[in-house]
């Protein structure tokens, strides 16, 4: 990666690499549940004081998303008042506390290994704490990268944040696979654990190690983020022009840094920071980008991948999950290396169409053993198309379409909607997928993926009609773009 300016590429890359660790933790925290959820479910099924239903399990698997909604909603306020850097340090500490608490929710107040309703509540509180960290990181990490990156490589660098998210998911898939080892995951049917002897270690201990493993990257992130600079855009907003110029010149070179500083100062002072200063359309587009990124249903696959592959008859669902993670990584790289060449809109439209075809393929073939290979390929196509389109490009656009003076608030609102719809999709997937009718016992299977496929088609139409192309534009150009609409 080269810059035409005389700034330090090594310096830029080093601070971006630290920032994308937040993305890795985002992916790690949201996907750790995929390997742990069956052992966790079997553990709480043993509770004597309440019945751990499918509804409770769906809520528990998605409880971190409640924290994500809270964290993303707070991100604008914290990013504006604390700064981007200190907000990310706080997010790292929340990740660390959540990892240790989720591993040992009995700490101080409960007897170890005795499931109860109170313990379930405490476990979910720890997951919500981690979710707050995810919500903060999901909004502020791409914002941080976008505000330090030169415009000619901004899309690529922000896309690396999505790569880190997917890499974090792959890492935790692999970590869960290693932790599980030769132990079995429990088979749960009709609210009974069918192989308690073979899966006893997983039920008692395995899921704890999976959640606790996050403490390592969380501690590393909280430590390293202390050594990166604050973003120059934020420094200008709080009147620290000299510090901002120092960061800009170190990244872009002396002359270019001074020019960028002047442009930032002009856009910061020309408008107030009222949310609708640039009209309602920019806010609507940001919100709908977030809504569609989740409504297409991808996280239902990522969170429940081992369960889905098990229902498809695969002999080792964890291996298939790791394979899917590798495919996701490879197709995320497609976006990283093409976003500045092809642009944002083409990737989103092509990805939406590919996802629709994959989802409809799963809907038409799921449950048919003769077509299980088609189902598998369709699921991979669905996931892969998301990874080069809506996965990274949505974050790129959210980080760059908003003008400087409203970016913190607008990003917070957009990302909050993203997590709201993530929670809706994730918490409804299991009951919707398991829906049966007297005529069709597989009704939920084809209905669920058929619905996701239809939403993918709507997403393509939305991008075509309303989303502006931002390739090659500076963050300051966004003020002029929306002011002219």
Query: What portion of residues is helical?
Result: over 70%
Uncertain segments: none
Which strand-content bin applies to the residues? under 5%
Round the mean pLDDT to the nearest integer and report it. 82
Secondary structure tally: strands: 2
What is the chain-wise order of helices and strands? HHHHHEEHHHHHHHHHHHHHHH
Major sheet description: 2 strands, antiparallel
Radius of gyration: 22 Å
Tell me, briefly, the overall form: globular
Number of DSSP helices? 20
Distance from N terminus to C terminus (CA atoms, Å) equals 34 Å
Q: Strand order across the biggest sheet?
A: 1-2
Structural class: mainly alpha
Provide key terms for this protein:
single chain; 485 residues; mainly alpha; two-stranded antiparallel ribbon; 20 helices; 75% helix
Describe the structure.
There is one protein chain. Strands 1-2 form a two-stranded antiparallel sheet. The radius of gyration is 22 Å and the shape is globular. It contains 20 helices and 2 strands. With 485 residues, it is mainly α.
Topology:
Layout: H1 9-45, H2 54-81, H3 84-103, H4 117-148, H5 154-180, E1 188-189, E2 192-193, H6 200-212, H7 215-224, H8 232-237, H9 241-252, H10 254-270, H11 280-295, H12 298-303, H13 305-311, H14 317-342, H15 344-365, H16 372-387, H17 390-400, H18 407-433, H19 443-466, H20 477-483
Antiparallel strand pairs: 1-2
Summarize the structure.
This protein is an all-alpha fold and 485 residues long.
């Amino acid at each position: 990666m080269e810059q035409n300016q005389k700034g330090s590429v090594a310096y830029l890359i080093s601070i971006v690499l630290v920032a994308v660790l937040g993305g890795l933790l985002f992916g790690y925290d949201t996907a750790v549940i995929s390997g742990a959820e069956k052992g966790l479910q079997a553990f709480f099924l043993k509770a004597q004081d309440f019945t751990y239903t499918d509804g409770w399990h769906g809520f528990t698997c998605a409880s971190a998303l409640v924290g994500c909604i809270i964290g993303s909603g707070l991100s604008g306020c914290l990013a504006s008042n604390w700064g981007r850097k200190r907000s990310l340090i706080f997010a790292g500490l929340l990740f660390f506390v959540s990892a240790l608490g989720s591993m040992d929710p009995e700490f101080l107040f409960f007897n170890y290994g005795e499931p109860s309703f109170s313990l379930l509540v405490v476990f979910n509180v720890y997951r919500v704490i981690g979710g707050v960290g995810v919500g903060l990181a999901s909004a502020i990490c791409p914002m941080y990268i976008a505000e330090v990156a030169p415009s000619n490589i901004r899309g690529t660098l922000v896309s690396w944040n999505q790569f880190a998210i997917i890499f974090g998911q792959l890492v935790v898939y692999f970590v869960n696979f290693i932790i599980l080892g030769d132990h079995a995951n429990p088979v749960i049917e009709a609210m009974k654990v069918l192989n308690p002897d073979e899966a006893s270690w997983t039920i008692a201990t395995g899921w704890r190690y999976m959640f606790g493993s996050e403490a390592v990257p969380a501690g590393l992130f909280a430590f390293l983020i202390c050594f990166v600079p604050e973003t120059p855009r934020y420094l200008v907003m709080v009147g620290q022009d000299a510090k901002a110029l120092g960061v800009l010149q170190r990244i872009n070179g002396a002359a270019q840094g001074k020019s960028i500083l002047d442009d930032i100062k002009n856009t910061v002072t020309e408008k107030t920071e009222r949310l609708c200063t640039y009209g309602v359309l920019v806010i609507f587009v940001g919100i709908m980008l977030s809504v569609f990124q989740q409504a297409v249903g991808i996280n239902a696959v990522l969170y429940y991948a081992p369960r889905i592959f098990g229902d498809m008859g695969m002999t080792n669902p964890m291996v298939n999950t790791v394979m899917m993670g590798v495919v996701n990584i490879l197709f995320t790289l497609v976006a990283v290396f093409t976003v500045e060449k092809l642009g944002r809109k083409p990737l989103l439209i092509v990805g939406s169409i590919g996802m629709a075809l994959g989802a409809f393929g799963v809907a038409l073939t799921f449950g048919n053993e003769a077509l299980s290979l088609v189902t598998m390929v369709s699921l991979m196509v669905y996931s892969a198309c998301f990874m080069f389109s809506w996965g990274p490009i949505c974050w790129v656009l959210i980080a760059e379409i908003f003008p400087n003076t409203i970016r913190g608030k607008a990003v917070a609102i957009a990302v909050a909607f993203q997590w709201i719809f993530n929670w809706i999709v994730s918490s409804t997937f299991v009951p919707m997928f398991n829906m049966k009718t007297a005529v069709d016992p597989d009704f939920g299977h084809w209905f669920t993926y058929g619905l996701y496929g239809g939403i993918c088609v709507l997403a393509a139409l939305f991008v075509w009609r309303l989303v502006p192309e931002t390739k090659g534009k500076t963050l300051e150009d966004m003020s002029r773009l929306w002011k002219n609409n």
